[in-house]
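Schema walk-through. Below, the input block comes first and the output block second. Nothing else is stored per chain. Lengths vary across the set, and this one has 269 residues.
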Amino acid sequence: MSQTITPAALTGHATGSEATAVEQTRAVAEVQAAITVARACPRDLERARAEMQRACAERALADRAFYSVQGRGQGPSVHLARELARIWGNIDYGVRELRRDDVEGVSEVQAYAWDQETNARTIRSFIVPHACTTRKGRQRLTDLGDIYLNNQNQVAKAVRECIFAVLPTWLVQEAQDLCHATLRGEVVADGLDKAVERSLAAFARLGVTAAMLEQRVGRPRTAWTADDVARLRTDYTTLTRDGVPIDEVFETTTVDATALTGRPNQATP
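--- output ---
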């Protein structure tokens, strides 16, 4: 059944200037073309499931499939959401900057995801302040590049939730389970003791101490399990690939020298 899409239906208001009308007409044509192509080339569910299983069995995806940041929560990452959207096919998603006010220091942005085959759509619009939180408090952003990156970072969670809202629940849950299994399997294959030592060495190069890791896991490293090491790999990815500061993932820990050496601290000459 054919469906006619009008500019007003897309924008929510009547057309304005001639330039605006041309742009709206172009947008309508693109939407109608996308729907036509999606219905002419429907997704193959078995192929999509098989490709998802192959992707989640690879450590390259499993390492980036989850996030865990203090104050932001934890769960499946935007990287997993984007990969599943690619595999599922016939999905359009992204971010639009609707308005930027440099005087007030805010941007109005919109995250969206649209299954062009089923016409399932979800949209989230919100205000993003041109500011970032540092150890010195909240600081306003004025550089255009910093504002753009800040907007993208703030809406990443919204994009992830929009994608997951239009994907089947079974696909998302199975992908998470497989990625968890891949991470655990890597640890088991390496040997738990060796995997623990490799984790300690990798984090040490970032300035994260063993005490900070033990506090993060909730028990001494001699009692860590394969699941614990797998979760720490998620933290490592959060620090190295996603660029999240260490103090947003780990609580800073002051270690008493007496506990480490058995001798009291001595004054530095």
